[in-house]
Amino acid sequence: MYYLGRHVVWIDGLSINQGDPIDKANQVSQMGEVFKHAMEVMTILSSPTTNTDFMFDRQNWAPDIISKEHNRMHKVMLEVVGNDYWCRTWVLQEIVLAQDLTVCCGKHTCSLDDLFNLNHQIMAHETWRQMRRHLWTIIKADMSNQATGHNQPDGGVFDKDEMAIFTKEGRKNFQGIPFLDIMEKGMRFNRCSDQKDILYARRGMAIDGETLIPVVAYNNQQSVEDVYREFARRSVTTSSPNALKILTYASWYTDGKLPSWVPDWRLLSNTSEIWQARSFDGDEKGPSEDDENNDLLKLQWSHAMPDVSKDGNELTVQGRILQVMTPQHAALFTKHNDTLIKMVTKPLRYQFPEVMMVLFPKAPKPIVGDLLCALKGCPAFVYLHRDEGSHAYRIVGKLQKFQHIAVQHCLTELTKFQSNKSWAKNWSFRDLDAVGRLPEQSFTIV
């Protein structure tokens, strides 16, 4: 860095006393402002090699050189973009907040946008080469000749949409938005040594970051679960019309240390695990979020607000029962089991039942007698199962496909479909006022 003329620097790994929880909390709470106001943020990639020196040398970015040295540059680019660095939770803040972010590898530097453009050029050549190979394969009708030795043009662990964050326009999608939207958009950046940081690292980016996490703490008295519970409590007790949106981030395969309504952020890895009620295309895939057109958020309610118990475990909220699960309904959930996981794990379940239950626990499905409800401020249908001998309920059926079943099979008398301009199917209530007249009652969820 001195070679490049950088003499006044702030290095988070050195400037923060990792052994002092008070100093660490104080520094971390200011990191958002540090990155936001820094003149330049520099990302140091792994140690340079002859190949990385070649790829990062701007003289080699000419189209004819990229074409000639494509195999070499393609391999290096996959290694660079597929670097573990791009999964670390704190890196998201560096990318999004930096006014000027420079990628450094050895003596070579480039902007993040330059890296994106170089990746695009290399992958464009790879895509054309792939097309030529596949066309020649078809002509020869001999699939074995092209079966090995070719990497896929997917930019390493990044897909095309994820690579957009490397551009200024793409980074704007992460700026000036609520906390939960940042969690959804940046799920790949979840690798950290302290799992509290999955939330703390987003605090400086979200417009409601300091509201939902007013204090950063690393003391031993507050566990990871405590941080997640407090974050969920503050989320549901806001005055937002979709205050219970956070419920839809609570995955079904929690280990039981957290209430069923509190997300375990350590477990979420992709957006398909968020079970919001959205629009559907003809194949029941490709959800598209649009809270403004979500009839669940248009229902009228009393002024009673969600409440959370002092220990952070019980959520009390207003709701309406839309359907009670019948044997016919319950059969639908059994029929729609995850076929792939079932196919792969079924032989192993017989041989190693205890191990397989830990590795591949079965999703709690709604059963006969469970309630399908609309909850005040929640953009998804909620399945509630009453704990035996208790007044409280647990949320079950926390899968996106169970939202599809609710709309298409369980609530056919209440819901309808219509196609939008992009030919996706949007659901709505047949009579919103009629649903709003259903009895409103209080539910306690644990």
Give a verbal description of the structure:
- By secondary structure, the chain is α+β, with helices and mostly antiparallel strands.
- It has two domains: 161 residues, no CATH class; 223 residues, no CATH class.
- It is 37% helix and 12% strand.
- The strands form three sheets. Strands 4, 5, 6, 7, 8 and 11 form a six-stranded antiparallel sheet that branches. A three-stranded mixed sheet has the order 1-2-3. Strands 9-10 form a two-stranded antiparallel sheet.
- A hairpin with a 6-residue loop joins strand 6 and strand 7.
- Helix 3 crosses helix 5 and helix 14 runs antiparallel to helix 15.
- The protein is globular and about 70 Å long.
- About 7% of the residues have low confidence.
Give a quick set of tags describing it.
446 residues; 12% strand; three-stranded mixed beta sheet; globular; single chain; six-stranded antiparallel beta sheet; 11 strands; alpha+beta; 2 domains
H/E topology pattern? HHEHHHHEEHHHHHHEEHHHEEEHEEHE
From the N-terminal CA to the C-terminal CA, the straight-line distance is 52 Å
Task: Please give the largest β-sheet.
Answer: 6 strands, antiparallel
The whole-number mean of residue pLDDT values reads 82
Strand content: 5-15%
The low-confidence runs, each spanning 5 or more residues with pLDDT under 50, are 134-156, 282-289
Backbone shape = globular
Task: Look at the helices and sheets and give the structural class.
Answer: alpha+beta
- How many domains? The number is 2
**Rg to the nearest angstrom?**
25 Å
Helix content: 25-40%
Number of strands: 11
